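>> received
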Amino acid sequence: MGYRYETHLHTCSGSLCGKSTGAEHARFYKEAGYQGIIITDHFCGGNTAMPREGSWKSRIDAFAAGYEDALAEGQRIGLDVFFGWEECFSRYDEGRDEYLIYGLDKQWLYEHPEIEYWTRRQYYEAVHAGGGCMIQAHPFRKRDYIKKIRLGLQFCDGIEVANLFNDPWADACAMRYAKAYDLVTIAGSDNHLSNLPGKTEPGMTYGIELDKPLGDIHDLVRLIRSRGKIGLIVPPDRFEIDPDNAPEVETFWLDENEDTVPTHRNWLQD
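>> returned
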């Protein structure tokens, strides 16, 4: 058995939709046998708990509170805890596409208050320049608030091919998309509520598995950007299509101007 990491995790301190504290998550994943977790709370464009007012530094400090809570508990119990975030891009009634950011820290955020207004291209280039990477989260997710499935092939280093809270057909489509374009793949739980006493959500077991432990988050960035070996922690049947539960879904590319262009492809078919 290799070293297991949760790649997609929200706390109640950094995400309005979060239900567990960073420390609660840390204890859960330690008990579940994970080597480490990456805290990826929702940032400016998404369902963030980050204050909308105040100095930029104070806002970033508040945003990072969930990570720091998890880090302190992780250091106490022997769990690696890394910093990241999830950014959302939306346009009017089209919904949203979201990206996981790894490899940057609070100091980098302090130095980039303009990040709130960046396009995907600006984000991607700045993250790369800073030594980080971007992964498109749950690219085929379909919800009431997501009117169009938008594939940001130009703006990411890989995709989250499996997400615990996706419909299985969406992950099957993501895997077919990844194979078609030879994309780096990860999996994550998108966990908002860890299975602790008094909690009701089922245990979270998605993530990635590595042959060697990460020394720091930059080790994962190097693996992703160099296309190194990354195992997926997902059920063995996760990428199978059930025709009775696979709707017809129209998908769109994001072009150079970040406008939507139909893919003219049915990802549910081989």
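>> DSSP finds seven helices and twelve strands in the chain.
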